[in-house]
Design brief:
Layout lengths: L2 H11 L5 E4 L4 H10 L6 H12 L8 E6 L1 H4 L9 H7 L3 E5 L4 E3 L7 E3 L5 H10 L4 E8 L8 H20 L3 E8 L7 H21 L8 E2 L16 H15 L6 E4 L6 H15 L6 E6 L1 H11 L6 H19 L3 H6 L1
Parallel strand pairs: 1-2, 1-10, 2-3, 3-6, 6-7, 7-8, 9-10
Antiparallel strand pairs: 4-5
Helix pairs in contact: 7-8, 8-9, 9-10, 10-11, 10-12, 11-12
């Protein structure tokens, strides 16, 4: 394990006010988004869509790293170039989603466990040889009647920690993503309570497994009410609650926190990140960044619609959303969008 290499990569992922672009949707997720817009659900169109993303001029001005799906790393652009090489040549660090997705957790109705540890060491070794420098593993925690249970939280935290140490063993920076879902009618206070419990458990497991905290990135949810909750707090209230929770749970050794968007709109995710950086940036031990998927991609997808003629306009929209989040990291998002 080259600890300094891990540290350098982790720092680079959150440097210069840039963030991560999550373009690692699985087959079902990507196909579902295509279906909503009437785009044929084919491997070739998924490849075309991702080529449109990685060939967007100037994307590296705002994006430090891109999370790919296994299908994508084995595909090529129309000119025969690999996705990994195109990203690297453009100054964007290539990463990979390595979890096997969530399944029902035995004995725990309504709860999920993420799979994918089988053969993970071998897969990570191959990915490292291909030039991938970081990875991502997502665990999901659902808030509902009587859940989450401590058993579910601990099982997912243990898997996250085992994944993380396997990544570091081969020189890949782990993105640790414990997501408390927005689905439901729970309050912001309940989200705070559960997220605090989850993050304490996750970092306990990371410590137990010997993960080098300086060589990882945390990808958490923001502290927000459920989508169906009657009370939706202000941007400033979400920012305050999120930072309060993170200060209680995330060690200062972690170089960066890259928030997931988790179903938030592009505008709301950026506004909340902006508020955190406006109010707290100078006081925090870690960088506050983003690892957004839909919150960056959706406007471009709405324009592209699977048609080659729409690529230039879609790329403009993608570039603009990335710039907005660069501004949010600097606490300048509202000023940018007002112009």
């Amino acid at each position: 394990m080259d600890i300094q290499k891990l540290i350098d990569t982790a720092k680079a992922l959150v440097a210069d006010n840039k963030g991560l672009l999550a373009m690692d949707e699985s087959y079902p997720t990507c196909n579902k988004r295509f279906a909503k817009l009437g785009i044929p659900e084919t491997a070739e169109l998924r490849r075309d869509y991702r080529e449109m993303i990685v060939t967007t001029a100037g994307l590296n001005e705002s994006i430090s790293g891109a999370i790919l799906f296994d299908e994508t790393v084995h595909q090529q652009l129309k000119d025969g170039s690999s996705f990994v090489n195109v990203l690297t040549d453009n100054g964007i660090i290539p990463g990979i989603k390595v979890d096997g997705g969530k399944v029902a957790m035995a004995g725990h109705p309504g709860e999920k466990i993420t799979e994918g540890l089988d053969n993970l060491r071998d897969r990570l070794t191959e990915y490292a040889k291909m030039g991938l420098r970081f990875a991502k593993w997502r665990a999901v925690i659902t808030i509902g009647k009587g859940i989450p249970t401590q058993a579910c939280i601990e099982a997912n935290a243990h898997a996250l920690a085992r994944y993380a140490v396997l990544c570091q063993e081969v020189g890949i920076v782990p993105i640790v993503e414990p997501e408390v879902l927005m689905d439901g009618d729970h309050t912001m206070e309940r989200c705070f309570e559960v997220t605090e419990q989850v993050l304490h458990t996750v970092f306990n497991q990371l410590y137990t497994q010997g993960v080098v905290l300086e060589g990882m990135i945390l990808k958490p949810n923001m502290i927000v009410p459920g989508l169906a909750c009657s009370k939706q707090e202000s941007v400033a209230e979400v920012a305050d609650a999120t930072i309060k929770c993170l200060l209680r749970t995330v060690p200062a050794a972690v170089p960066g926190i890259a928030f997931l968007s988790g179903g938030q709109s592009s505008q709301l995710a950026s506004a909340r990140l902006n508020a955190m950086n406006v109010r707290f940036k100078s006081e925090l031990p870690w960088e506050l960044s983003f690892s957004f998927g839909r919150a960056i991609q959706q406007p471009a997808l709405d324009i592209w619609l699977g048609k080659e003629k729409n690529v230039p306009e879609a790329q403009k929209a993608l570039y603009q959303q990335a710039v907005f989040n660069l501004a949010a990291r600097q606490g300048e998002y509202m000023e940018k969008t007002d112009k």
